[in-house]
Amino acid sequence: MKRASIFQRTPEGQKTPKMLDVERRLGPTLEEDFREYYLGKGWGQIRLSKRWGVQRNTVFSSSVRNGFRCWAEILNLSVRGTDEQVSVNSTGSERTLICEACEEFETHLDRAHWISSEEGGGTQSFNTLRLCPNCHRKLDRDDPVTTERAREILLLREAKRIIETGRDPGTKRTNLVRVCRAIVTRRIT
Known about the structure:
Elements: H1 17-26, H2 30-40, H3 45-52, H4 56-60, H5 71-74, E1 86-88, E2 95-98, E3 105-106, E4 110-113, E5 128-131, H6 133-140, H7 144-164, H8 169-185
Antiparallel strand pairs: 1-2, 2-3, 4-5
Helix pairs in contact: 7-8
């Protein structure tokens, strides 16, 4: 017999007491703050989570297995780099992911690094792709077709992200040149 959960699922769009507490402390709503800092100023997930005073997973990582929904999912906030890769089925509980390289549906995607950690690559958005295990292996083995596809995806995605975020054109140009150079040369400069 399945045991009833003591936790109740937070309805879509309804804020938890912790969310309301963060809003009282910050001033603006979570949605406004998210748009300004995460989308507008290009802050990372960890930096925004620290601003809100909660763990990164609380804001950005849902878990289908244990039923936990992150704040971004509850508030229907668009997280960079995932909106075109994730779809929720009709029940809203199970996610189907799409490989960025081969565009096949997968139940699990790897976070593949364009520039390896040993060569100075980190977890920046311009250095990671969501790939099925097969495409990840091909990228690691420098398969020419997969490598070229990955380069095109990263260049387009990151150019779009930089152009659409931030206000300072000088900073945008500098970031765009730096990121595109790293993607094209596959080296951090």
